[in-house]
Amino acid sequence: MNDQQRSLTVLGATGSVGASTLDLVRRNRGRFRIVALTANRRVNELAALAREFRPQLAVVADPSRYHDLKDALADCPDVKVGAGLDALAEAADMPSDMVMAAIVGAAGLKPTMHAVARGTVLILANKECLVCAGDLMIAQAREAGTTLLPADSEHNAIFQVLDRTAPDSVERLTLTASGGPFRMLPMDRFATVSPDEAVAHPNWDMGRKISVDSATMMNKGLEVIEAHHLFNMPSKTIDVVIHPQSVIHSLVHYVDGSVLAQLGTADMRIPIAYCLGWPERLETPCKRLDLAGLGEMTFQAPEAARFPCLFLARAALEAGGAASLVLNAANEVAVAAFLGGDIGFLDISAIVSETLETADMKAPQCLASVMEADSAARRLAEAAALRRAARSA
Ligand code: NAD
Ligand code: MG
Q1: pLDDT (tens digit, 9 = 90+) per residue, 116-165?
Q2: Known binder of ligand: residue 372?
Q3: Could you tell me if the CB of 332 is within 6 A of ligand 1?
Q4: Which of 24, 31, 119, 388 is most deeply buried (CB count within 10 A of its CB)?
Q5: Could you tell me if the CB of 230 is within 6 A of ligand 1?
Q6: Quick one: which of 293, 352, 308 has its CA closest to 182?
């Protein structure tokens, strides 16, 4: 890796993590050069970023937006324009020192796997990739010599305090969770909460899908699976504790009884900066932690009745086979239906649970079969969502 100036591709440049990443690049102009930027369909935002950062390639995933992007970048002949799934993969394939994987959902799987396969430093925010294809991704990274740097704040915290010289000395991991906006909500309100209430996260400013996942705590369930793959730890050694202040980002417990944690304010630019600068540290403008001002930190165990998605995710990890992939696909479908106003909040866990009961659980052996199993699980979840939407109409 070039330490004078690092080249970087951002997959999912127009999202919340993409924006935090590019904010840090903007503040460290000389240290990074942008190779490729991608977005789903927000052409104007992508064009503005491309005009600012001058990548070699700008890609919009939605092929129907190709001409819009081409027109928007007509005055930037140095920026090549692409559209569609193959162009996303082409962006990931372009030589760069680092790739930030910040697409949301399994849609990011193919381009992320392309980046993993070419042997680079992959900064992983797109946790759904690991949930869908963790074994394949870890094996591919090992084979290709790709370094995975976790951007998810909990995994980044663990990565920062993990003693890699003595892997056998790690006894347990604790992932902290804010508990989301519904930690204290009376349970009889759950049936009628709106998408806007669900995305109003108390501590973090994030994309809509992960915000709903935080409200159901599916996010923490996905993160248990993510931690299992990243740190090679079995489910029973990965604990979850609710910590509403979101100051301790996670903890590593060692065999001697020592516990190491990483702390900081709730700003994704801190873990992202750790990855961008790794193994050195980048300065950030993030608010500094003021412990006396904070006063106290509290902790509580997550309840199964309030947060069934967390427990479904752990059960899926322990079941193995295709269960984690099916869980993720069903959750993506259910969250989209909830955000679209078609189903209620409680239908999310019900659809995930129903899909897990009916889907094929055979473990896929290659990326193509992961994608087929993902599509099959989505079809089942869509049918379940339609049935529920019809019931509540
Ligand atoms: P977001 O919705 O704000 O942004 C998602 C990005 O992916 C956008 O650039 C969008 O254009 C792109 N995208 C969406 N659908 C796509 C598709 N079908 N094909 C190609 N591109 C597509 O999401 P986010 O909050 O930035 O989260 C991104 C990922 O990072 C998620 O996996 C999330 O779980 C993870 N993450 C986010 C945060 C956070 O604070 N936002 C924290 C930890 C982990
Ligand atoms: Mg997280």
Answers
A1: 999 999 999 999 999 999 999 999 999 999 999 999 999 999 999 999 99
A2: no
A3: no
A4: 24
A5: no
A6: 308
How many residues in the chain? 393
Shortest-distance Cα residue to atom 9 of ligand 1: 12
201 is known to lie in a ligand binding site: yes
The domains spanning 6-150 and 320-392 adopt the same CATH topology: no
Task: Report the distance separating Cα 295 and Cα 313, nearest Å.
Answer: 33
Q: Domain 6-150: give its CATH architecture.
A: 3-Layer(aba) Sandwich (3.40)
SS3 content of the chain, % helix, strand, coil (to 5): 50, 15, 30
Domain ranges of the chain: 6-150, 153-265+290-312, 320-392
- 303 contacts: CB under 8 Å, gap ≥ 6: none
Question: Could you tell me if the CB of 40 is within 6 A of ligand 1?
Answer: yes
DSSP 181: T
Is 391 part of any known ligand binding site?
Answer: no
Each residue's pLDDT tens digit, 70-126? 999 999 999 999 999 999 999 999 999 999 999 999 999 999 999 999 999 999 999
Pocket residue to mutate for ligand 1, from 10, 11, 14, 17, most atoms within 8 A of Cβ: 17
Domain 320-392 has CATH 1.10.1740.10: yes
Q: Which of 389, 357, 390, 355 is nearest to 375 (CA)?
A: 355
> Which amino acid, one-letter code, is at 351?
I
Instruction: Identify residue 224 by its one-letter amino acid code.
Output: V
User: What is the whole-number distance in angstroms between the Cα of residue 17 and the centre of ligand 1?
Assistant: 7
Amino acid type, 55: P
- Specify the amino acid at residue 207: G
- Residue 16 · residue 206 · CB < 8 Å: yes
**Helices 208-216 and 218-231, axial angle in degrees (round to 10):** 100
